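Figure 3 (text version): structure tokens given as input.
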């Protein structure tokens, strides 16, 4: 199994070593479930609604908070894998991309959906990893169905299935 580098920073309270370790495990499991065998680097910012709103405005010109943002480094197609030839020569890691998670929004959605904060954070992290790997859900058709199927498979593998 490759050694991925998952760098987590936070600009809000409540992000401790346990939460960082949990997110690293979820992201690593999502990469493994997608068959990513090349060591990758993923940068994660855990913030609040105001922080993710600023990122959304700066990067996407959308002045609104959201739950998760994904910024892939490569234009992959679902099922494609990052290549070792894309690795940074200094680190040997493929810079897969960045994600930004709103802890505030995750907690609110967990309450709304009736599951734990950790389950919601895991779902958002898996969702973001899939975006970094080229999955999308812009349509209500096959692309969204494909992405939702992969999300559910990864979450099931983590022992965090959707509550029925």
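Below: residues designed for each position.
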């Amino acid at each position: 199994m490759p050694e991925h580098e998952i760098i987590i920073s936070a600009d809000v309270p409540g992000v401790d070593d346990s939460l960082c370790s949990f997110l690293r495990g979820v992201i690593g499991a999502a990469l493994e479930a997608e068959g990513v065998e090349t060591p990758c680097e993923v940068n994660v910012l855990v913030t609040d609604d105001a922080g993710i709103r600023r990122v959304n405005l700066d990067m996407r010109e959308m002045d609104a908070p959201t739950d998760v943002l994904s910024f892939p480094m490569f234009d992959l197609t679902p099922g494609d894998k990052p290549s070792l030839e894309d690795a940074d020569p200094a680190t040997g890691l493929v810079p897969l991309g960045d994600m930004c998670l709103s802890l505030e929004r995750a907690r609110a959605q967990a309450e709304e959906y009736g599951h734990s904060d950790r389950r919601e954070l895991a779902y958002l992290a898996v969702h973001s990893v899939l975006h970094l790997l080229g999955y999308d859900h812009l349509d209500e058709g096959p692309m969204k169905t494909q992405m939702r199927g992969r999300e559910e498979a990864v979450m099931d593998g983590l022992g965090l299935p959707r509550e029925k």
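The longest strand covers residues 94-102.
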